[in-house]
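Thread amino acids onto this structure.
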């Protein structure tokens, strides 16, 4: 994979933007975070505190058109949003950061989403295969430098996917972790130079699962959630949680790391 393969999927005019541009800087037209835009985003975010997630997604699709995209790891929240998108805008470009270390059960959801909703989630892979990457680093980097591993296998791939877009949907909820506690529903995402839309930011875990299990409109979900894995990432960095543990206690367990860096405001691997 080269540095720019994802332009095939991006909403630009087909020409490569100059090097060094990120996110909406590479869009045609680019989206600039002017005071006016930031004020609009703040106003929308406050107003959407009492809106439905569907209303928020409808606004995003109407406001950003084919420059709106979604990243999903097929978590419960992502599955809820995918079901909504299948009704609101099934042609929205959706991608998954396919690190090479995902559980087979996670990847299977890609097929279920395609069958049930007709949405073909693009699996975006890092430049190097797992084999090449581990050979380069004399073994699995997740064991010795998980921040760098997340940066190479997730952040860089999202940066490529974001190029030429204006906005992306994320499935984060405020009560998932302290890092996410203040997440606005709509905000300017400096790291990826995009508008970030989090339609479930103020949802609770119960609301998500009630929607998934809604009789007559059940939403597929990862079967590992029924086996002690409330939060699922790459298999080397995910374990089951014990009774009474936090839902994200099984992610990078035994280390200080709590996020892969997609939803934090820092820029590089040292803080990812
Ligand atoms: S979650 Fe683990 S395996 Fe996946 S990219 Fe990050 S460090 Fe690597």
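Threaded sequence (272 positions):
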């Amino acid at each position: 994979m080269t540095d720019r393969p994802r332009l095939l999927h991006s909403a630009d005019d087909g020409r490569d933007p100059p090097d060094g541009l990120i996110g909406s800087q590479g869009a045609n037209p680019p989206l600039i975070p002017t005071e006016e835009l930031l004020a609009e985003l703040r106003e929308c975010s406050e107003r959407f505190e009492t809106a439905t997630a569907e209303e928020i997604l409808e606004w995003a699709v109407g406001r950003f058109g084919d420059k709106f995209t979604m990243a999903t790891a097929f978590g419960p929240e992502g599955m809820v949003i995918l079901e909504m998108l299948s009704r609101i805008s099934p042609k929205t470009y959706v991608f998954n950061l396919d690190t090479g270390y995902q559980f087979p059960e996670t990847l299977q959801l890609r097929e279920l989403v395609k069958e049930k909703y007709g949405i073909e989630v693009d699996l975006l892979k890092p430049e190097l295969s797992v084999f090449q990457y581990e050979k380069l680093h004399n073994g699995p980097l997740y064991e010795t430098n998980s921040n760098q591993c997340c940066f190479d296998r997730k952040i860089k791939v999202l940066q490529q996917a974001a190029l030429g877009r204006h906005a992306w949907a994320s499935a984060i909820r405020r009560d998932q972790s302290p890092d996410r506690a203040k997440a606005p529903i709509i905000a300017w995402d400096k790291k990826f130079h995009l508008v970030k839309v989090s339609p479930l930011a103020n949802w609770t875990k119960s609301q998500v699962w009630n929607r998934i299990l809604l009789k007559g409109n059940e939403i597929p979900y990862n079967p590992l959630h029924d086996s002690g894995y409330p939060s699922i990432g790459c298999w080397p960095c995910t374990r089951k949680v014990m009774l009474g543990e936090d839902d994200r206690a099984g992610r990078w367990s035994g280390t200080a790391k709590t996020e892969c860096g997609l939803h934090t405001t820092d820029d590089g691997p040292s803080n990812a």
